[in-house]
Design goal:
6 helices, binds 4-nitrophenyl phosphate, alpha/beta, 4 strands, four-stranded parallel sheet
């Protein structure tokens, strides 16, 4: 499990996690919703702040893709209040962890990342414990199975991430 080092959460200064994909309408809103659900269930919602963004600008201001909303809703996760926004350089100052879904996201996010902040950039799948995967594949151009597979990986990774955040949230 990746070591989250010296992160320390308090209600006044929660750990800040940003989920990043390409469009910010399928994978990263789903990851935000899943992590928020896990935090709520663990009573840690005031200790970890979650947001999401896309490397692309195609869908700024739009709600998550209807399919992503439907598949998430079947797992008890509501994405309807989220709106897409684009990743910016400032996000690397504002967040403690910037978690990308795939290689293209990593390349695009890296290009925006100031040199001193590279340690914040990780693949979400680094936190998987039940699946062996190095990316959450883009479900946008596929069917229902792609959305289910993405959610399976995202749920696994968010459970692992919550476990990795336990030391940081222990005193919160
Ligand atoms: P996401 O999926 O990166 O998981 O939000 C995509 C959504 C839209 C597009 C690509 C990927 N698009 O090309 O419009």
């Amino acid at each position: 499990m990746p070591d989250l080092g010296a992160l320390t959460a308090t209600p006044a200064q929660p750990v800040r996690v940003l989920m990043v994909c390409l469009g910010n309408i399928c994978r990263s809103p789903s990851a935000q919703g899943v992590l928020e659900q896990r935090l709520q269930q663990a009573g840690l919602q005031r200790c970890v702040h979650v947001d999401s963004a896309g490397t692309g600008d195609y869908h700024i201001g739009k709600p998550p893709d209807e399919r992503a909303q439907q598949h998430a809703a079947r797992r008890g996760i509501d994405l309807s209040r989220q709106r897409a926004r684009q990743l910016g350089r400032r996000d690397f100052d504002d967040f403690d962890l910037v978690l990308v879904m795939d290689e293209a996201n990593e390349r695009d996010a890296s290009a925006l990342c100031p040199p001193g902040q590279r340690h914040k950039l990780r693949r979400l799948t680094d936190f998987c414990t039940r699946h062996s995967a190095s990316a959450v594949p883009d479900p946008y151009y596929g069917g229902a199975a792609g959305f289910e597979a993405a959610l399976d990986l995202i749920e696994d990774a968010c459970d692992g991430l919550l476990a990795a955040l336990r030391p940081a949230t222990a005193g919160c």
